[in-house]
Amino acid sequence: GMANAITLTDTDVTLNASGGVAGTVAVSGSGLITRTISISGLTGDGDFTISIAANTASNGGGNAPAAGPSAVVNVDNTLPVITAAAAFNVYQGGSVTAQHLADVSDTFSGFTVGVAATTVPAGLTVSAIAVDASGVVTGTVAALPDLAPGAYVVTLTATDEAGNTSTANLTVNVLANALPTITAIADQSIAMNGNTGALAFDVDDADEGPNALTVSVNANNQVLVDLLTDVALGGTGMNRTLTITPQANHTGVSVITLTVHDSVGAQASVSFTLTVTDTVDAPALGGLTDIVIQRDQTSQAFTFTATDPQGDVTLNAPQAFSGDQALILDASIVITGTAPDFSFTVTPEAGQVGTTTLTFFVSDGTHTTSQTITVTVVAPASGGDDDDDEKCSTSGATGSWLLLLALLAGLTVGARQFRRE
Question: Is the pTM of this model over 0.70?
Answer without folding.
Answer: no
